[in-house]
Amino acid sequence: MVNNSGANQLLETAAAWASADPDEATRGELRQLISRAANEPAALEDLADRFSGVLEFGTAGLRAELGAGPMRMNRVVVLRTAAGIARFLERQSAGEYTPKVVIGFDARYNSDVFARDSAAVFTAAGFEVLLMPAPLPTPVLAWAVRRFAAEAGVMVTASHNPPRDNGYKVYIGGRAADDTGRGAQIVSPVDTQIAELIDHEQPVSAIAQAASGWQVLPAPGTTADIEAEYLAAIGPVVAPQPQRDELRVVVSAMHGVGGHTMRQALLNAGFSDVHMVAAQEHPDPDFPTVKFPNPEEPGAIDLSLELARELSADLVIANDPDADRCAAAIQDQGVWRMLRGDEVGWLLGDHLATALPEGRKMGNSIVSSRMLAAIAKDAGREHEETLTGFKWISRVENLGFGYEEALGYCVAPDLVRDKDGISAGVMLADLASQLKSAGSSIPQRLDELAARHGVHVTDQLSLRFTDLAQIPVLMDKIRTNPPANLGGSAVSEVSDLSQGSDKLPATDAMVLHTFSGARIIIRPSGTEPKLKCYLETIEPVTEISEVPQARLDATTQVLAIKEQLAAYLNTN
Question: What is the pTM of this model?
Answer without folding.
Answer: 0.94
